[in-house]
């Protein structure tokens, strides 16, 4: 039943990629064109099994890529350690072919690789096996993040594996026309292990798997025209928009075909005080199994210090075709009750134009309540009528008739990875949402 609905929604949504994004994403020239000129790190002071491949990456970039637009910075297959972090600024029409596997051994904070002010750029592994091991367990919350892409245009990150960053895994800091796909991200079972945090304009994120206990694929402000689809949060904190505070500006966002197994939530919008808006957002085709929360809008989020302002305005937000169940519902101890649907909106900035369409959320305990506060729209405990603040309204629900236990994926994890031991390196899967094919084949198959 649900599969049919999702298939129909997908069919109707075919033109959405075009409508949602406002132009092409990714590099404008092909990898093969850039392979005509190779900047191999082994010719710039690097060697396989190097104790610090960082300087060779920096040198190949400065002395080869920047001097010859249309080049590929190449890290050949093999293992490398890295101590010295690299900021690669200003490249145009270039690729970073990361076929090697780099292990963090340096302890500085910051980012191992920053790509900044690049245009027509791509970082990828042609074997779909290259990537980074951070051994974050040795240096928890006191080391580098892996990759930051800053203010770049027409770029992609794909076919890479990111394991156990001491801190976040991938940060996209504004820029436009980015595409991130075919990624496996595996962090520790704790906070501060964010998968992908992304801001900017006209970005497409698809076919990504994240294991951690913090952000899966999360939109940060400012953001407009994002399409985020086929995301497998495999024991993760879950995806979110936020945290938002002063002058938030998030609009025209579509998340669709999001599969969440375990972890915190199927989707959360989080803020505490602040100002600005989140508007024109569609959350379509969500499946969740065993999450703590399902649909969670919390504008009094306790994980955040209250920002200046009456609250972020949430407007015109639709949740469509959701199926899932959380693990805690109406417990006898009401202080730990977790509602499958929770809209805790700010009294100074009520949520308006919220639509729940075929949202079938339930709780594994067999009883549940939904809760709404200052939230207006259509569905469950959302109120209609004049937009005036109201106190939390708790609604006892029964199992939605269309609820079905969502399918599992082979490889769903039962729990996250331990904090005190090395995390094994995964391969990049080829399915990220039950029943849907990957959008682009893995690079190693091309
Ligand atoms: C990083 O810290 C670890 C543990 O303190 C230490 O063994 C290692 O030598 C340090 N690495 C560098 C490059 O200093
Ligand atoms: C980005 O790509 C578009 C075409 O898709 C092109 O019009 C634009 O000039 C490019 N921007 C930069 C900074 O290269
Ligand atoms: C509401 O948001 C949807 C996207 O979910 C968008 O298509 C629609 O144009 C928005 N409506 C208004 C009035 O902006
Ligand atoms: C309810 O659970 C919370 C959190 O586990 C605990 O601190 C509190 O003491 C419990 N209250 C009762 C009445 O059992
Ligand atoms: C999800 O869990 C399965 C089972 O362990 C594993 O094969 C897969 O690689 C996991 N995904 C990630 C990103 O770790």
Automatic annotation (TrEMBL):
Gene Ontology biological process terms in this record: carbohydrate metabolic process; cell wall organization
Residues making up the signal peptide according to the UniProt record: 1-19
Keyword Hydrolase found: yes
Entry keyword set: Cell wall biogenesis/degradation, Disulfide bond, Glycoprotein, Glycosidase, Hydrolase, Secreted, Signal
Family: Belongs to the glycosyl hydrolase 28 family.
Native organism: Rickenella mellea
GO CC annotations, alphabetized: extracellular region
InterPro entries: Glyco_hydro_28, Pectin_lyas_fold, Pectin_lyase_fold/virulence
Cellular localization per UniProt: Secreted
Protein name: Rhamnogalacturonan-hydrolase
Chief location bin: secreted
Keyword NAD on entry: no
An annotated Gene Ontology molecular function: rhamnogalacturonan alpha-L-rhamnopyranosyl-(1->4)-alpha-D-galactopyranosyluronide lyase activity
Coiled-coil stretches: none
Pfam family, any one: Glyco_hydro_28
Domain of life: Eukaryota
């Amino acid at each position: 039943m649900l599969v049919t609905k999702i298939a129909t929604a997908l069919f109707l949504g075919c033109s959405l990629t075009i409508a949602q994004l406002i132009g092409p994403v990714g590099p404008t020239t092909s990898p093969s064109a850039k392979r005509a000129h190779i900047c191999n790190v082994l010719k710039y002071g690097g060697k396989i099994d190097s104790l610090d491949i960082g300087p060779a990456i920096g040198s190949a970039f400065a002395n080869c890529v920047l001097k010859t637009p249309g080049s590929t910075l190449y890290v050949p297959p093999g293992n490398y350690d890295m101590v010295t972090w690299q900021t690669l600024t200003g490249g145009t029409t270039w690729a970073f072919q990361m076929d090697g596997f780099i292990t963090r051994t340096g302890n500085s904070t910051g980012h191992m690789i920053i790509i900044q002010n690049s245009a027509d750029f791509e970082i990828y592994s042609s074997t779909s096996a290259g990537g980074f091991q951070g051994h974050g367990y040795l240096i928890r919350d006191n080391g580098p993040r892996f990759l930051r892409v800053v203010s770049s245009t027409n770029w992609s990150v794909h076919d890479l594996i990111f394991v156990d960053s001491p801190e976040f895994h991938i940060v996209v800091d504004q820029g436009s026309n980015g595409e991130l796909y075919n990624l496996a991200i595996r962090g520790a079972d704790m906070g501060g292990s964010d998968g992908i945090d992304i801001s900017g304009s006209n970005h497409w994120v698809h076919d990504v798997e994240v294991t951690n206990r913090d952000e899966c694929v999360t939109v940060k402000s400012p953001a407009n025209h994002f399409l985020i689809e086929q995301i497998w949060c495999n024991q993760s904190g879950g995806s979110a928009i936020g945290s938002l505070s002063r002058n938030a500006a998030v609009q025209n966002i579509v998340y669709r075909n999001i599969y969440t197994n375990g972890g915190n939530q199927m989707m959360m919008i989080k803020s505490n005080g602040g100002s600005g808006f989140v508007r024109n957002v569609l959350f379509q085709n969500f499946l969740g199994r065993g999450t703590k929360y399902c649909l969670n809008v919390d504008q009094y989020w306790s994980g955040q210090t209250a920002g200046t302002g009456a609250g972020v305005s949430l407007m015109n937000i639709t949740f469509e075709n959701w199926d899932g169940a959380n693990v805690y519902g109406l417990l006898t101890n009401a202080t730990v009750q977790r509602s499958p649907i929770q809209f805790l909106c700010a009294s100074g900035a009520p949520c308006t134009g919220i639509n729940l369409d075929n949202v079938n959320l339930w709780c594994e305990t067999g009883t549940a309540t939904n809760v709404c506060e200052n939230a207006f729209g259509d569905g469950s405990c959302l109120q209609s009528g004049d937009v005036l603040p109201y106190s939390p309204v708790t609604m006892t629900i029964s199992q939605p008739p269309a609820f079905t236990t969502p399918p599992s994926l082979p490889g769903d994890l039962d729990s996250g990875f331990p904090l005190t031991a090395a995390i094994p390196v995964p391969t990049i899967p080829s399915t990220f949402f039950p029943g849907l094919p990957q959008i682009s084949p893995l690079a190693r198959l091309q």
